[in-house]
DNA sequence: CCCTATTTGTTGCAAAAACAACAAAACTTA
DNA sequence: TAAGTTTTGTTGTTTTTGCAACAAATAGGG
């Protein structure tokens, strides 16, 4: 099982021995699978009986509304979970889909095993449980951040709000974002072409610069 | 301490005796205060060293952006927490303010005491810890719901998305929402006057009806 | 390296939302 | 109940966005 290497790289399992991980995999009824870009890992509205862990690559949490519009709710990276909230809040269907954003490896675990205390007394299970809390909290804060972007009036303010947050996270005025233009439009819930126009304008104005997925905030907007 | 009565009403403390609650209050360094409508319970950007519990009434999580626009992120009711995520994710400032939405009673606890295991072995502390996970998960799902509303193109779709969710939660086509029109506009991040126009149109069309904070979805939009 | 698929930029037009300003209605409270 | 405050509705103007269609640029695969 060469996937063990990828698992061990995750901060989540730091300090766990191979045996620990092997035992946990068994304990949680783990399964590991790999996906190509664009492949659906788990469908919207399907039964929520597993919890997914991105082991390698990236995946997007997506929601399709009644008109067929796709919204990218969140971008998940290695170490991030999908489905934990449903498990803990006792919801039995996922309200969103998980879609591989690039070549990825995803582990999944039995929902019930994850949320209930381990009978086997796995060495890492306690650590894991503690981390869960932290991860869900971080997710919650990330969602709040996103709401802040979406709450901006106008595409210009939305995109600047997003880019400033990304810049702050990166701790630099140059930074990469996980979205191409089409995906960024989906993430910000605006028209792709309109976003393109606004980005072009901001570039011409000299406020920002960008190339591919790399951005640069040249003029920092002042906080209130 | 007559506030004890209010605390005991919360699902969170069901099955806890007065002594249990008294011990927990001591253990968590609890403080209780009451607030009028519009009063700021805790300011945006202030030090996040306490966790707040709405004991009675309602409060809104609000965010003011760099242009002075107020966004209502979330409406909290009795039993809901504020600041838990910051505690668990180890953030030291609140990114939002908590504002009393009506006459309310709010308890606050020492952040550190909440997130670390209790040395006194309070009877309810374990239960509390378990509920925390559930609450944060539920919050996360609620935020995802809101993102879905905000992701809709156009005010009409936003407000219908919101009202349908509220209707589903209430389990009826008649239901009350916690916002007046101004607050609803802030929650949906749109112009109040534009929202007013759209609501009027929907009422004239016969899609919905409303009076004060009571709404009625007359024609149900079909899911995809 | 060429062919194809995807991504990105551009434009014009129609529709919608922001904004501002004001009037009517409802709610407070003295 | 009268005065003042807040909420809600209305309207006209300006700006922005959505939408559709197309062209250019880029990436990916054989």
Provide the fold topology.
The structure is a homodimer of 224-residue chains.
Chain A: H1 4-9, H2 18-27, E1 31-35, E2 40-42, E3 50-56, E4 58-64, E5 70-77, E6 81-82, H3 84-89, E7 97-100, E8 104-110, H4 111-115, H5 125-150, H6 155-170, E9 174-176, H7 181-188, H8 192-205, E10 208-211, E11 214-217
Antiparallel strand pairs in A: 1-8, 2-7, 3-6, 3-8, 4-5, 4-7, 9-11, 10-11
Helix pairs in contact in A: 5-6
Chain A binds a DNA duplex (30 and 30 nucleotides) through α8.
The order of strands across the largest sheet of chain A is 1-8-3-6
The percent of residues in helical segments of chain A reads 40-55%
Q: Main beta sheet of chain A: strand number and arrangement?
A: 4 strands, antiparallel
What would you call the quaternary organization? homodimer
Give, in order, the helices and strands of chain A. Answer: HHEEEEEEHEEHHHEHHEE
Strand element count of chain A: 11
Which structural class do you get from the secondary structure elements of chain A? alpha+beta
End-to-end CA span of chain A? 53 Å
Number of helices of chain A: 8
Average pLDDT, all residues of chain A: 88
Largest inter-chain contact set: A-B, 46 and 46 residues
Overview in brief:
Chain A is of the alpha+beta class and 224 residues long. Chain A is 41% helix and 24% strand. A four-stranded antiparallel beta sheet of chain A has the order 1-8-3-6. In chain A, strands 2-7-4-5 form a four-stranded antiparallel beta sheet.
């Amino acid at each position: 099982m060469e996937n063990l290497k990828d698992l061990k790289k995750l901060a989540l399992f730091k300090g766990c021995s191979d045996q620990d991980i092997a035992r946990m995999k068994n304990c949680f009824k783990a399964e590991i699978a790999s996906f190509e870009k664009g492949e659906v890992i788990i469908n919207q509205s399907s039964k929520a009986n597993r919890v997914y862990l991105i082991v390698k690559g990236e995946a997007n949490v997506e929601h399709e509304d009644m008109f067929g519009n796709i919204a990218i709710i969140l971008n998940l990276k290695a170490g991030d979970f999908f489905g934990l909230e449903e498990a803990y809040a006792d919801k039995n269907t996922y309200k969103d889909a998980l879609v591989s954003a690039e070549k990825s490896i995803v582990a999944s675990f039995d929902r019930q095993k994850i949320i209930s205390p381990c009978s086997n007394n796995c060495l890492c299970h306690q650590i894991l449980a503690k981390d869960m809390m932290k991860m869900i909290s971080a997710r919650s804060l990330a969602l709040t951040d996103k709401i802040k972007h979406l709450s901006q009036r106008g595409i210009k303010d939305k995109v600047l709000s997003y880019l400033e947050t990304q810049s702050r996270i990166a701790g630099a005025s140059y930074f990469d974002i996980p979205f191409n233009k089409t995906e960024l439009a989906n993430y910000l819930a605006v028209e792709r072409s309109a976003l393109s126009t606004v980005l072009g304008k901001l570039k011409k104005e000299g406020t920002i610069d960008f190339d591919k997925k790399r951005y640069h905030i040249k003029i920092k907007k002042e906080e209130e």
